[in-house]
Write a structure and sequence with these properties.
Helices cover about 75% and strands about 0% of the residues. By secondary structure, it is mainly alpha-helical. The chain folds into 2 domains: about 80 residues; about 300 residues, no CATH class. α5 packs across α7, α7 runs antiparallel to α16 and α13 packs across α16. It is globular and about 75 Å long. About 10% of the residues have low confidence. InterPro entries: Chr_Tranpt_l_chain (IPR014047), CHR_Transporter (IPR052518), Chromate_transpt (IPR003370).
Length: about 450
């Protein structure tokens, strides 16, 4: 029996047309993202709403709403990366205020400039939505939650009860947990940032320089040398950087450079207290990526006889840092309160976070010119690799102040397993160590 020839189902051609349509849609979207400035309606297609676009369409973000949203997200974000993720979820996924491409540009620029990455992204987001006022509002909202909490920590830390409970043994165990956390962070960042031979050489030389360095000038020279080396050895050398600055931009850059030079100058110790806040602002210009890499830099400023912050105070502040929302640079209000009360906490926070916020807004205006230059990007790649040396040296210096004892090795193994394998939150690890130490002290008192 001869059966009639069966025709192919129509769904095949439909599937193929859908697949082609999807491919064409992706191509069109890519073309729009690259040439959005030349294609009419491209910004609407990509859902990228600048401040001017939102104003024309009646969708400008109210300043109070911007403050409320960023404040709430910052209060629930432990770490700068968590804040970036929550900002993306709200303004890209839920509200559609920015496209993924636009938000990824904000993140890339935040890593390219010094200062806390999460706060840098919040400042840029506010600037994109509401201009200069939005940048200030978003920056204040991202800093305010951890400013209040860390200042409260400092107030309670000054009470006799807390200082009596913070025994040297407990602080040593906290130091071990902190060193383990920094070591794991160093391992992850090294795997992500240090790949080529030149990056490894720069990282090793940076570790050696930081280990023997005792002056803030060494940090500035090392970072400048890393960027300069990457610039000089870049495979592409025929592309100049063409960036046009307005007069106000040059004035801002001059002021930031003056603060950086003031931080690097080897001044007599009698000027430590008088110039603490301007030098802290200059130190912020060396903190690429922030986090635990800031530990050696901040210790150079605060742990001096003139300032009065002890090694135990410094270690405890960084131990409390993961317990508070915000980036790991939230220790700055704590140190500021120890130096000069509420006024010191406020001035320290402004000194560290305002310059980096101004710089990231300035860089945002020239983002495309900077990203398009391969020599600049190569220099930043070497610079980011060298910043891992700050983490390695921080671990070594913390470990040098902890006695070599089996009980501290057990704490190190326990915290390493919790952080690396079990992914236990930081505050749970610190709480467990504190409870075990308290039970051990109680058992010793009964015996």
């Amino acid at each position: 029996m001869i059966y009639p020839r069966r025709r192919k189902p129509a769904t095949f051609s439909l599937y193929r047309s859908q697949r082609d349509a999807a491919r064409w849609s992706r191509q069109i979207t890519t073309m729009i993202s690259k040439d959005g400035a030349r294609l009419p309606g491209a910004r609407g297609a990509m859902q990228t709403i600048t401040s001017q676009d939102a104003s024309r369409r009646g969708e400008r973000e109210p300043l109070w709403t911007l403050f409320r949203v960023v404040f709430g997200l910052s209060a629930l974000s432990w770490g700068g990366l968590a804040l970036m993720a929550q900002l993306e979820n709200h303004y890209v996924e839920r509200k559609g205020r920015l496209s993924r491409v636009a938000f990824s540009d904000l993140i890339a620029l935040a890593w390219m400039v010094p200062g806390p990455v999460g706060c840098n992204v919040a400042v840029q987001l506010g600037h994109s939505l509401r201009g200069r006022a939005g940048a200030w509002i978003a920056g204040i909202a991202s800093v305010l939650p951890f400013f209040m909490l860390m200042t409260l920590f400092a107030i309670f830390y000054r009470t006799p009860l807390v200082r009596a409970a913070a025994s040297q043994t407990l602080l040593n165990h906290f130091s071990v947990v902190l060193a383990t956390l920094i070591a794991i962070t160093w391992y992850k960042q090294t795997r992500a940032l240090v790949r080529g031979k030149l990056e490894w050489i720069a990282t090793v030389l940076g570790c050696v320089a930081l280990f023997y360095a005792r002056s803030p000038a060494a940090y500035v020279v090392m970072l400048g040398a890393a960027f300069g080396t990457g610039w000089l050895v870049s495979p592409v050398r025929s592309t100049p950087v063409v960036v046009s600055f307005a007069r106000g931009d040059w004035q801002m850059l001059s002021a930031l450079c003056a603060l950086l030079v003031l931080f690097a100058l080897p001044l007599p110790h009698r000027y430590d207290l008088a110039l603490l806040w301007p030098r802290l602002a200059g130190a912020g210009m060396t903190l690429f990526g922030g986090g635990f890499s800031a530990l050696p830099v901040l210790k150079t400023l605060f742990v001096t006889p003139a300032i009065g912050v002890s090694d135990n105070d410094f270690t405890l502040a960084f131990s409390l840092s993961p317990l508070s929302p915000g980036p790991l640079l939230n220790v700055v209000p704590f140190f500021g309160y120890l130096v000069d009360g509420w006024a010191g906490a406020l001035i320290a926070t402004l000194a560290l976070f305002v310059p980096s916020g101004c710089l990231v807004v300035l860089a945002q205006r020239h983002l495309h010119q900077l990203k398009a230059n391969p020599r600049f990007e190569h220099g930043m790649r070497i610079l980011r690799a060298v910043t891992t040396a700050f983490l390695a040296v921080a671990v070594l210096r913390i470990a040098a102040h902890v006695p070599f004892s089996p009980v501290y090795l057990m704490t190190a193994l326990f915290s390493a397993m919790c952080f690396a394998k079990l992914k236990v939150p930081v505050y749970v690890v610190y709480g467990t160590v504190a409870v075990v130490c308290g039970l051990w002290f109680a058992y010793g008192a009964l015996i």
